Amino acid sequence: MNEIISISHYSEKSARVKIANRVVASKVQPGQFVIIKFSETGQRIPFPVVECDGETGELDIIIHRADGLDEILGLIQEGGVLPDLLGPLGMPAVIDENKAMLFIGDGAGFVPLLPLIHEARRKGCQVHAIVSEQSSQTKCLLGDINSACNDLTVASEDTVPEIVRKWIEMYKPDKMVFSGPTMLMKNLTAIAREHNIPADCVLNMLMIDGIGICGVCRVMIGGVQKQTCIDGPVFNAWDVDFDYILNRQRSFV
Amino acid sequence: MNSDIEEIFDRGRDEQWRVDLRQTMTPKQRTAIPRVRMPELDPTFRISNNREVGEGLSVEQAVLEATRCLDCANPGCVKGCPVHNDIPGFIKNLERRNFREAINVLHRTTVLPAVCGRVCPQEKQCEGNCTYLKMGKKAVSIGALERFTADINRTFDRFIPQPTSTDDVKKRPTYPIKVAVVGSGPSGLAFAGDMARRGYKVTVFEALSQFGGVLKYGIPEFCLPNKIVDREIQKLRDMGVEFIKDCFIGRTLSYEDLHKLGYKGLYLATGAGKPRFMGIKGENIPGVMTANEYLIRLNLLGNAMFGKNSVAVNGKRVAVIGGGNTAIDAVRFAVRNGAEEAMIVYRRSMDEIPAREEEIRHAKEEGIKFFTLHNPVEYVADENGRLCKMLLQRMELGEPDESGRRSPVPVEGDIVEVPVDIVVVSVGYLPNPPASIPNMITRKGGQIEVDDETLKSSSNGVYAGGDIVRGPATVILAMGDGRKAAASMAAAFEEAMDKIKL
Lengths: 253, 502
Prior knowledge:
CATH topology of the largest domain in chain A: Rossmann fold
Helix content of chain B: 25-40%
Low-confidence stretches of chain A: none
Number of domains of chain A: 2
CATH superfamily of the largest domain in chain A: Nucleotide-binding domain of ferredoxin-NADP reductase (FNR) module
Strand order of the largest sheet of chain B: 3-2-1-4-15
Radius of gyration of chain B: 24 Å
Shape of chain B: globular
Oligomer: heterodimer
Low-confidence stretches of chain B: 303-311
Structural class of chain B: alpha/beta
Strand content of chain A: 25-35%
Number of strands of chain B: 15
């Protein structure tokens, strides 16, 4: 269990790691994540499961520089075994069938959207995606994203709102799903409200245990305190208090 | 106290050696001996490290303290103990220096003597009912003796590998019946030990990466060294208990999966660790954290291990809100972590504070300030958004509430400002998220509803105990529940097996 099947390097800033864990792989649903420790004494780091095969018992994660890529690559190698992998955690995302979906992601923020895009495709949705490109982090994912989308645009962070508005006019999406920096998600939620489009967002909060004990990932959803690890990480964006998150994230930089 | 426990004591007390031992000294001679003082690390030294504060009794100290015990005919200590340990029984064995037998006596009722000897609130339980108190003298130091008994036997085991607690295993029939335990805290461990001893195949599932639950993640090293917990877990492994980490029942494996894997019984001991907040202004500004976050970080990660994405928990001025054991643990950790000023903010007075007496004494020795009769009303951030001060409302005591404690009422307009870098909120816990068991009835707060006698829940074959049923309580009560559930589950299995006709 927890053998590292392969490590593919996308760029100097990201790598994709395939891990064997039959039990977890058979349970993961789109939107859920795992918490991994790369060494006995290391941190517990949450990763969205980007791809998962219950048959082979393998699951894929993407490690970014922000997760401490260099340190992690120093600790793992193909054929090695991870000391701890806990999952699946969080609630699965709800994706309806045959809808027009607009996905918007920024850089590393696109990683948690990948499984949702695949799921939307499986459910016969029209998938439109906007990737705001900040770095080569996104570039390496473009191939993956492109093959899963009906339509893909690469934007820069400044132009995202403009393009989103244009696409909303053009495709009349039934739902928006986005992930990325909190400020971007806050702005996108405002746009979704403006056009009265339901929207989900995938929150990326710091976590320690992932089972609802430490309270680090607490967020306010519709005026109620929730824990991202138990109740999330996908929330109805309209209900999320982004200012609260922005304030909490100040301590993490 | 139930009748078969009474029977054990009567038999023990009338044994010849014990009768003889009682006559070696007069009660007057015994009561003249002063209560032992366990050597402790000097406060100025111990705040620089995480070493255990109490150094334990020496053999001579323990034997002398054991001599103080009058071996009462009607021992109050046993009634005060939630699991009814045979306290005079083990103490008299210490007096005659039969340390092996002393641990065997303890093991009849408790599986974690090394832990309970350290973290039980003895002054409210066994020692609080000691006959010495009625004479206006200090109680027998039962906690220290229990700890001594467990510790010295651990030392013996190193030299003479002779399992004490597993002796009965060989005597019992082994059933091919599999039972699962969810959670490896004190309740789960106690249940696992008792079921294994009865001959069942036990698997303990733990969601986190280390076994021990609150004993590891909550109680700090300086109160309860991790190696002691590890040792208890090793003992269970030796008895054939299987431990599986990183398995979150309800997510990684469902209740149905456990069924498919052949588990016939399930004991839920998932605890109460979900933090409660006060809902006051500023509770979410960086610098305000839960006691769980603070303790998990310090206990498990070590401050040096913090990655660049994590919050530094070093603060010069640390305030812990609450007066329970967790709060005192957190504030004492703060001192060890370099806080120049560490304080407890508690809304009642020192008389109502629920933490253990010993912990409070240790905290005071370590220079911790107690802001009693104060309650936070707001946390304030500086221009960078970081916590800089808290506003405390002065309180006074009013009428007693339903818990019997005098409830605090605010003194209108009396608010003080206290500068602070870190606030640790420790104002109670809620039951952990449910394990998604079908037909499980829970109370409004999330606690599982069980039968008081059998600890059986509304779901078939599922028993529950410890904090998930009681709400936040003590290690000993959780352990007691584990034993009770094991007894009733085993009885149910045996009854079912009796009915099988071939």
